[in-house]
Design a protein that fits this description.
784 residues, alpha/beta, TIM Barrel, 2 domains, eight-stranded parallel β-sheet, five-stranded parallel β-sheet
C-alpha cells in the first residue's frame, strides 16, 4: 500500500467513546461517586484513544479541541469568559462545577451563588443556560448569553492544553475553534436592543491571544469553524467576518487558518468567503455538491480547498469510484498542494464504529459507514488521489459493489410502495368538510364541556416500567407476563385520570420505548442499532433509527392497545401516533431518494393506522409532529418547498377519516410566528403547543392570523419538577382567553409526561383540572 496521501481531515470526531464511556464518567461524577480528578482522567483517556484511532486509520489532519465534557459552544463561552453573573464566577480558572452549572443548572435554593457570600460554592441553585438545536442537526448547544457592556477575557486555555496533550503523545494536531462571528450569532441577550455582533471588538483580542499561544507552541494550521457562512447573512455580518479575519491575518501572519463551513452552500456568501485572508477554505459537498464549480471558479489560486465529500451527518457508505471521478479533475486543476479531502462536517453526528454492530443484517451492514469507517474512506481517497487508484483498488471495488447491491436490493425497493405513492391525489390530503362543519359534528358526538382537559399522551416511565421492559427484552420476563404488567399500568393510569376528572384520556404509552423507535420497529424499511449512539446533548445520547428502504405497515401497530384502553373507560380515549415528519427528522434517512419521497411513504403507513383506529371506534386520534419546525432548511428561500411537502405528509395521514373523527396534533418547538400559515394549513382539528414559559405570548401568532381551529395552549411546564398552583394556571388561561375565543381553548400540559415523576404529575394535573373547572364556571356565569 502506498504511503503517499493527500492531506485528509476528519474536522471533528465523536466524544462519547465507543461504549459511552463519557456518559458513565459524567454521571458518576455528578452523582458524587467519583472525583473531579477521575473525570479528568477519563476524558484524557478518551482523547488519547481518539487521536490514536485517527492516526491508525490514516487521518493526517487530526483535530484537537474537538472534545468536550458537555458542549463545544459552552467551551467557547468559558474560553472567552462569557459567564453570566448568576454563576458567581469572578475571574481566574473556571471551576468544573461552574461549568456544569451553566450546562445543567444546580440545586441550592437560598444558599445559591447569587447571594454573594464567599462561603457559597459557585454555581449552586441556578438555572442552566438555554439550550437549542445546532443549526438543523439533532445536536443541542448551550446558548451563549451576553449583556450590554459584556467584557471578554481568556478564562480557559483548553485549545492550547489539548494541543499540547496531543503533542506529548506524539500527535501533531490541527486545533479546532468555533469562529468568533458564528459564536456571537449563536448567542442572545436579555436586552433586545443589544446586537451580539456589536461585541466583536471586545471578543477578537481573546481569539488573537489563544491563536498566538497555539502558534508559539508549534501549531501551524488552526481550523476555525464559521458555519454561519451557509445562512442568509446581512452586510453587517459579512463585514464582521472581514474585520475578524483581517485582524487574525495582521496579528498572526504566519499562522494558517482553515476557514470551515458546513451544513449547506456558501451561496451568496461565496464572494465574502473567498476574499477573507485565510490559507484554506472548507466546503460541504455532501449537503451542497452543486457549489463545487462556483467555488473552483472564484477561489484564489493560492487558497487550499478542503473538499467535504464524505457525509459527516449520515451513515451511508461512500461510492469511492464516484467520488474519485469528481475529485481527480479538481486535483489536476489546482494541484496537490492546494486540495485536501475531508468529511463534510464534524463526525460528531454519526455513531463511532460499525464493528460494534453484530446483530444487524449483514447486507445492510455492508452499506453503512460510521465514524471509524468514514475516516478509513477518507484515507483511501487520499491515497488514491496521491498514488493512483491501483494503490487502493480493492477498497474501491468493494465500495462500488456495495453501492450496486444497495441500488438494486429488494430490501430497499418495494414496487408496491412506489406504486401506491404514485397514486396519491390532492383529494387524499383534504378533509371532506371545512373545520366549522367538522367541529359541529365533533361537538355533537363527543359532548365535551367547555375548556376540555386532556394530556399530551405519555405518563411517567417509572423505574418499574423500565425494568420490566429491559427484562422482557432480555427474555427474563415472558411475553404474557410483560403484557399483563403493561395492562396493570394502563388500568391504573386510566382509573386515576377518571378519578381526577380529566375529560379526554390517554393510555399512558407504557408499552412504548420511544416515540419514533416504537413505530419504526413495526414498519418495513427501518433498522435499529445496538451501539449506534450519537450525542444529543451532554450525557444524553440517542440511537437514531436507520431508514434504509421503502416504508410500509405490515399490520396495525397501536390498535390493540387503544382498544384495550378504551374498554376500560366510558370517556373518550385518544389514539396516539407519531407523525411522518417527526419520524423522518429523527432518523438517519436514506440518501437515494428525496426526503419528501420517504416522508410520503411513512405518511401512507400512518394513514393506514389512523383509518384502522377509526374503524376500531376511536373518535380522537393525535398525530404528533414534534419535529416539524426543526426540519426547516437553514435558508429561508428553501422553507416553502419543505413546508409544502411536510404539511402534505401530515394531511395525508389524517384526511381519510370522517368529519366526526377529531384529529389532534402536538408540536414542541413553539416559535410559530414565521410558519403560522403552514400550521394553519395542517388543518388539525386541535393543536396543542408549549406556551407556559412564554406566559401565553406565543399565542400572539395565532391571534394575528385568526387561527380558526381549536388550540390547547400548555398551562403546565413539564420540563421542570415544579408543581404549578391552580391560580397560576388560571392566570395563564385568562391570558389565553384574551387572545383566543373561549370555544377554541383546550387545557393541557406543555408536552408529554414521560420524563416526570408521578409525585410531580399527580398534583399538577389535579390543579390543572381545577383551573379548567374554575374557568368554566366563571365564563358560564358571565354568559348567563
Amino acid at each position: 500500500m502506498s504511503s503517499l496521501t493527500l492531506p485528509v481531515s476528519a474536522l471533528g470526531t465523536p466524544r462519547i467513546g465507543p461504549r459511552r464511556e463519557l456518559k458513565f464518567a459524567l454521571e458518576s461524577y455528578w452523582s458524587g461517586q467519583s472525583s473531579a480528578d477521575e473525570l479528568v482522567a477519563s476524558a484524557a483517556a478518551l482523547r488519547a484513544a481518539n487521536w490514536a484511532r485517527q492516526h491508525a486509520l490514516g487521518v493526517t489532519n487530526i483535530p484537537s479541541n474537538d472534545f468536550s465534557l458537555y458542549d463545544h459552544v459552552l467551551d467557547t463561552s468559558v474560553m472567552v469568559g462569557a459567564i453570566p453573573a448568576v454563576y458567581g464566577w469572578t475571574g481566574g480558572e473556571v471551576p468544573l462545577d461552574t461549568y456544569f452549572a451553566m450546562a445543567r443548572g444546580s440545586q441550592g435554593g437560598a444558599d445559591d451563588a447569587t447571594c454573594g457570600h464567599s462561603h457559597h460554592h459557585a454555581g449552586q441553585g441556578v438555572p442552566a443556560l438555554e439550550m437549542t438545536k445546532w443549526f438543523d442537526t439533532n445536536y443541542h448547544y448551550m446558548v451563549p448569553e451576553f449583556t450590554s457592556g459584556q467584557r471578554f477575557a481568556l478564562a480557559s486555555t483548553k485549545p492550547l492544553d489539548e494541543f499540547l496533550e496531543a503533542k506529548a503523545l506524539g500527535y501533531h494536531t490541527r486545533p479546532v475553534l468555533l469562529g468568533p462571528v458564528s459564536y456571537l450569532k449563536l448567542g442572545k441577550s436579555q436586552d433586545p436592543s443589544l446586537d451580539p455582533l456589536s461585541l466583536l471588538g471586545g471578543l477578537l483580542p481573546v481569539y488573537v491571544e489563544i491563536l498566538r499561544r497555539l502558534a508559539a507552541h508549534g501549531a501551524d494550521w488552526v481550523q476555525i469553524d464559521e458555519p454561519c457562512l451557509v445562512l442568509d447573512l446581512d452586510e453587517p455580518t459579512r463585514q464582521a467576518l472581514r474585520v475578524a479575519y483581517g485582524m487574525f491575518a495582521y496579528a498572526l501572519p504566519k499562522l494558517k487558518l482553515m476557514l470551515t463551513t458546513y451544513f449547506g452552500a456558501l451561496g451568496d456568501n461565496l464572494d465574502t468567503a473567498v476574499e477573507l485572508p485565510v490559507a484554506g477554505l472548507h466546503v460541504d459537498l455532501v449537503r451542497a455538491p452543486e457549489q463545487l464549480d462556483a467555488v473552483l471558479a472564484k477561489a484564489p489560486s493560492g487558497l487550499v480547498l478542503s473538499l467535504g465529500v464524505v457525509d459527516g451527518r449520515n451513515i451511508w457508505r461512500a461510492n469511492l469510484a464516484t467520488l474519485l471521478d469528481r475529485l481527480e479533475p479538481v486535483l489536476a486543476r489546482r494541484g496537490a498542494d492546494h486540495v485536501q479531502i475531508a468529511a463534510s462536517c464534524s463526525l460528531l453526528h454519526v455513531p463511532i464504529d460499525l464493528a460494534l454492530e453484530t446483530e444487524l443484517d449483514p447486507e445492510l451492514t455492508n452499506w453503512l459507514a460510521f465514524a471509524v469507517q468514514k475516516m478509513a474512506e477518507l484515507a483511501t481517497l487520499g491515497r488514491a488521489l496521491a498514488g493512483g487508484r491501483e494503490s487502493v483498488s480493492e477498497a474501491i471495488v468493494d465500495s462500488v459493489l456495495a453501492a450496486s447491491t444497495r441500488a438494486t436490493s429488494p430490501k430497499v425497493h418495494d414496487r408496491a410502495v412506489a406504486e401506491r405513492s404514485a397514486t396519491v391525489t390532492a383529494g387524499m390530503t383534504q378533509r371532506a368538510s371545512a373545520f366549522a362543519e367538522r367541529h359541529a359534528l365533533q361537538e355533537a358526538a363527543l359532548k365535551l364541556p367547555s375548556f376540555p382537559t386532556t394530556t399530551i399522551g405519555s405518563f411517567p416511565q417509572t423505574s418499574e416500567v423500565r425494568k420490566a421492559r429491559a427484562a422482557h427484552a432480555k427474555g427474563t420476563l415472558a411475553p404474557l407476563d410483560y403484557e399483563a404488567f403493561l395492562r396493570r399500568e394502563t388500568d391504573a393510569a386510566i382509573r386515576w385520570q377518571e378519578e381526577i376528572g380529566l375529560d379526554v384520556l390517554v393510555h399512558g404509552e407504557f408499552e412504548r420505548n420511544d416515540m419514533v423507535q416504537y413505530f419504526g420497529e413495526q414498519l418495513s424499511g427501518f433498522a435499529f442499532t445496538k451501539s449506534g449512539w450519537v450525542q444529543s446533548y451532554g450525557s444524553r445520547y440517542v440511537r437514531p433509527p436507520i431508514l434504509f428502504g421503502d416504508v410500509s405497515r405490515p399490520k396495525p401497530m397501536t390498535v390493540d392497545w387503544w382498544r384495550y384502553a378504551q374498554s376500560c373507560t366510558q370517556k373518550p380515549m385518544k389514539g396516539m401516533l407519531t407523525g411522518p415528519v417527526t419520524i423522518l427528522n429523527w432518523s438517519f434517512v436514506r440518501d437515494d431518494v428525496p426526503r419528501s419521497v420517504a416522508c410520503r411513504q411513512i405518511a401512507l403507513a400512518i394513514r393506514d393506522e389512523v383509518q384502522d383506529l377509526e374503524q376500531a371506534g376511536a373518535r380522537m386520534i393525535q398525530i404528533d409532529e414534534a419535529a416539524l419546525r426543526e426540519g426547516l432548511p437553514l435558508r429561508r428561500g428553501e422553507w416553502k418547498h419543505y413546508l409544502d411537502w411536510a404539511v402534505e405528509s401530515f394531511r395525508l395521514c389524517g384526511s381519510g377519516v370522517g368529519d366526526a373523527t377529531q384529529i389532534h396534533t402536538h408540536m414542541c418547538y413553539s416559535e410559530f410566528n414565521d410558519i403560522i400559515d403552514a400550521i394553519a394549513a395542517m388543518d388539525a382539528d386541535v393543536i396543542s403547543i408549549e406556551t407556559s414559559r412564554s406566559k401565553m405570548e406565543l399565542l400572539d401568532a395565532f391571534v394575528s392570523d385568526r387561527y380558526p381551529n381549536d388550540i390547547g395552549p400548555g398551562v403546565y411546564d413539564i420540563h421542570s419538577p415544579r408543581v404549578p398552583a391552580v391560580e397560576e394556571m388560571t392566570e395563564l388561561l385568562d391570558k389565553a382567553i384574551v387572545r383566543l375565543s373561549a370555544s377554541q381553548i383546550w387545557v393541557n400540559p406543555d408536552c408529554g409526561l414521560k420524563t416526570r415523576q408521578w409525585d410531580e404529575v399527580r398534583p399538577a394535573l389535579v390543579n390543572m383540572v381545577a383551573a379548567a373547572r374554575q374557568l368554566r364556571t366563571r365564563v358560564s356565569e358571565a354568559a348567563g
